[in-house]
Amino acid sequence: MNLSNSSETSNREPSERNLSKLCVHTITTKPWPIEEAARRFSASGIGGITVWRDALAGRDIRQTGQLLRDQNLSIVSLCRGGFFPHTEAAGRQVAIDDNKRAVDEAFALGAPLIVLVCGADPGQSLSESRKQIQDGIAAVLPHAEAAGVKLAIEPLHPMYADSRSAINTLYQANDMAEALHSPWVGVAVDVYHLWWDPTLEREITRCGKNGNLFAFHICDWKTPTTDFLNDRGLMGEGCINIRQIRGWVEATGFTGFSEVEIFSNRYWSEDQALFLEKIKHGYLHHS
Amino acid sequence: MNLSNSSETSNREPSERNLSKLCVHTITTKPWPIEEAARRFSASGIGGITVWRDALAGRDIRQTGQLLRDQNLSIVSLCRGGFFPHTEAAGRQVAIDDNKRAVDEAFALGAPLIVLVCGADPGQSLSESRKQIQDGIAAVLPHAEAAGVKLAIEPLHPMYADSRSAINTLYQANDMAEALHSPWVGVAVDVYHLWWDPTLEREITRCGKNGNLFAFHICDWKTPTTDFLNDRGLMGEGCINIRQIRGWVEATGFTGFSEVEIFSNRYWSEDQALFLEKIKHGYLHHS
Hints:
Two copies of one chain form a homodimer. Chain A has helices at 3-11, 34-43, 61-70, 89-109, 126-147, 170-180, 191-194, 200-209, 242-251, 265-268, 272-286, and strands at 22-25, 48-52, 74-82, 113-117, 150-153, 185-190, 213-218, 258-260.
């Protein structure tokens, strides 16, 4: 793969859009260490990077943040905090402490936002988990505010309601963000989790109107999908009308990044440089 | 497995509930031909059977219905009609014709109800699929009414929105049933599809109040779930509070069957007589 050619190609892209508002999650190209991902993204003209905490393992977080900025990458967010619910109070405290560490990491990295996968415990009711999520965010909030780091509640697809998130619709996320009523708490909209919801346009409008639309994640839903976690599709290979949803998001005044977050055993097993080309094409032509 | 012993055991069940309002779907014990399923269910004191169309293959449907009634089984419903959406009009007409055949089969069997898995086509928008579903049901309705067969819209979990059903919440199913405004069109509530929905209690109340609560299906959601279709859990081995949801259903005045509908590669590979004992136990103690 000739990177400078690849970069020239993207610079000659005929579309009216360029890649300056494209952000790629480190987990999307998981086989690459963050340093290589940053070089490759930057060489492609991609404007942003969202950092997963596992990508920071064994590194000086402050220096890694500087390395990303030196590559002209905007650090869009840190993934992920959350997982607040537990049947035991001690477990909930562990989660709160871990979320405070995530805030510290985001501050060190220079990430303005943490995405929250809020959690759920199958050993208790969804309503109890939902209450614990709100209490957990409230407990972390002063620390986040002091660090200048925002928190985004990400509603997850209902197929994750048992153990990953009891927040499963944008309606719920909006309700919770509004209840917490802080400029430091908002919502992350991910098309994979929300595309099926007949109230999506209305809830995106509400989210934007209340100043809570903090992040926009894209990928696609394949038919068939064969794995609950790691079979997400590239934009254009599934049934999600990403462009329509982006239109709703941008109609609220959102000018942030489109963040490509793809977990895929299939793509992780491919040549990542070729995969990155596909991501750029999918972003330009199918989102 | 000694069936008469098994039957005596269930008759001595200490619970205040008996099995007269338990219905089992033929697909739940798929390895059994319908004749054997009927004998086994009946010998166990189970009151109802829901028949999947594949179980009728190669049989005289009228005679099979009589065979079920001779075993003192109530024929609760026929599964399944639906799959109305297609990008091509010809495909939609094929679906309508097939649904009319399902009505004829239900009439011949003596089943008062057909459950509709409404369908979705990933090649078109969800809103288009939803419109085609409503149009399809409207097209079948006169035939169903003439045959005295009711139609139940079954909202399916959002993880099936791409290709199995564009009706993914009870709110949508209620809306559609109310729009079709016929005593022959109602809704099937399945805990597997709907348990995660924070509006579930309200929508069950609405469904019952409008006379649209036609059927109640139970099983459980396992953590982890490893297959999108065939890894449903037995009542009690997952995180769904089935008893709470049954309470909401019965609070509407519903006095129908709890129908056990479990697709499970694991259980289908087990001894079905032992599995039936587990079903009875799960029904009595975890629903």
